[in-house]
Amino acid sequence: MSKEKAVRYYQSFTQDFVESKNQNYTLPEDYRWIRTDFRSRFLSGLAYGLAIAFSTVYCRLCLHVGFVNRKILKNTRKTGAVVYSNHTQPVGDVFAPALACFPNRIYTLVSPANLGIPFLGNVLPYLGALPLAGTLSGMKELNKAVALRLEQKKCVIIYPEAHVWEYYTEIRPFSSSSFKFPVKCQTPAYAMTVTYQKRKFGKKPKAVIYLDGPFVPNSALPPKAAEKQLRDAVFTCMKERSRNSNCQYIRYEKIGEP
């Protein structure tokens, strides 16, 4: 491992290191996860097109992103997909999946706090952000939105670790709860593992992103068992891929451990 630049201390894997200016933002009661009016569709197409152009520059020049096995996502335009990734970049994680899945469009499950960010929060819904709901009725609408996008053969991006840990090189534990979507919709799942590797020049590492799959839900199992089986397959794959990281730009230490 290369020399560490910074150390961050944590007590649990659910700890937040990156917070928005309006971390406690809650969705309005009339929030719409699916917007079909002309204005929304126009702004969505415009915002997404600009985002793809920006992501090409930002991911390549700032994060030094490179993809391995990206070709496996080619068939997602025929099947749709749920793509699971580790959560290691507050900005890059908005754009890197769009490049990975291009030309297929992505829709991303996000924390409602992201919609409270000045200006950007108003743009995120047009980029395909699907905020998590805090109410039963909201969860029903979110589930409908995810099912619709998968039915339209789009890619739904999920960060099961939930919290952003910048440049973290391991895979944090995550539950099987978010794996209900591919099981219920009988849609293939993919793993997108971000690793950090040394560059010949410069202090920041390059982000080498591995794509694996498809992981197909077992329709013969009860839903909960199928969700766990799928989660275990994706988690094991991501753990294996994470071993390709060979440097630490930020080191994480658990409080209380030697």
How would you describe the overall organization of this protein?
There is one protein chain. The protein has 258 residues and is of the alpha/beta class. Helix content is 34%, strand content 19%. It has 7 helices and 9 strands, in the order E-H-E-H-E-H-E-H-E-H-E-H-E-E-H-E. Helix 1 (38-62) crosses helix 3 (92-101) and helix 1 packs across helix 4. The longest helix is centred in the first third of the chain and has 25 residues, at 38-62. It is globular.
| Helix percentage | 25-40%
As laid out across the biggest beta sheet, the strand order is 2-8-7-3-6-4-5
Low-confidence stretches: none
The H/E string reads EHEHEHEHEHEHEEHE
The overall pLDDT average reads 92
| SS field, number of helical segments | 7
Number of strands: 9
Percentage of residues in strands: 15-25%
From the helix content, strand content and strand pairing, which structural class follows?
alpha/beta
